[in-house]
Specification:
The chain is mainly alpha-helical. It is 61% helix and 0% strand. Helix 1 crosses helix 2. It is elongated and about 50 Å long.
Length: 95
């Protein structure tokens, strides 16, 4: 991993709060900030998870995006969740 030095402008109280949190956690501010960025940028978390599963840096995501032809995405997601839930035995759904 190549590290870069950067400058950003943030609210002073917010910055002090971040430094206090880092101190309480016993980590450097940079490490805490990197963790927060990874949490907010899903591509980093996905990439790290795939690397862990694949065991190498040479992985490829190969899929065809789903084109929504009508309705709302939330309706499609609900339908997919309901379909998946119907495949789970009743005991597991109720627990």
């Amino acid at each position: 991993m190549v590290r870069v030095k950067t400058s950003v402008y943030v609210d002073g109280e917010l910055w002090e709060g971040l430094k206090r949190r880092a101190l309480e956690a016993g980590v450097e501010v940079s490490a805490l900030l990197e963790e927060l960025i990874r949490d907010e940028v899903p591509e980093f978390a996905l990439s790290e998870a795939l690397l862990e599963l694949a065991g190498a840096e040479d992985y490829c995501i190969d899929f065809e995006p789903v084109e929504l032809t009508e309705g709302l995405v939330s309706e499609l997601v609900r339908e997919m969740r309901d379909e998946r839930a119907r495949g789970v035995p009743r005991q597991q759904r109720d627990s």
